[in-house]
Amino acid sequence: MRILGITIPENKRLEMALTALYGIGRSRAHTILLEAGVDFGKTTNEISTEEENKIRTIVESFKLEADLKREVGGNIKRLKDIKSYRGSRHARRLPARGQRTKTNARTLKGVKKTMGSGKKKETKK
Q: Which of 1, 23, 30, 86 is positioned for an S-S bond with 8, CB 3.0–4.6 A?
C-alpha cells in the first residue's frame, strides 16, 4: 500500500503503519481509521481495496509530508527573519522552549566535546 509516494509497512497494524507518514501520529491514525470504518488491528495485507481507497482519500485531505515540512521550515525562517528570540535560538541550534543548556540540551547541541583545562602541561627535561 502506497500513500503520497510512501510505502506503508505491510506486517504492522494499521494504527502503527500509518505513522510512517510525516504528520501522522497515533491519535491522527486513530481518527483516520475510525472515519474510514476500518479495524485498528488489521494489517495492510488484510484490508480490501475499498477500505484502502477510503483511507487514502482521508489521508490526502491532510497537509502531510513535503507540504508540511515546507510549512514548518517557512515558519522557522519567518522567526529568524523577524529576529525573534525563538528565531535566534533556532539559528544558534539551541533549545527554543526554555530548557536549560548548562547541562543536557544534547539533542540540539550534539555530542559533548570535552575542552581542556587551559593549563599547559610542563614537559620533563
A: 1
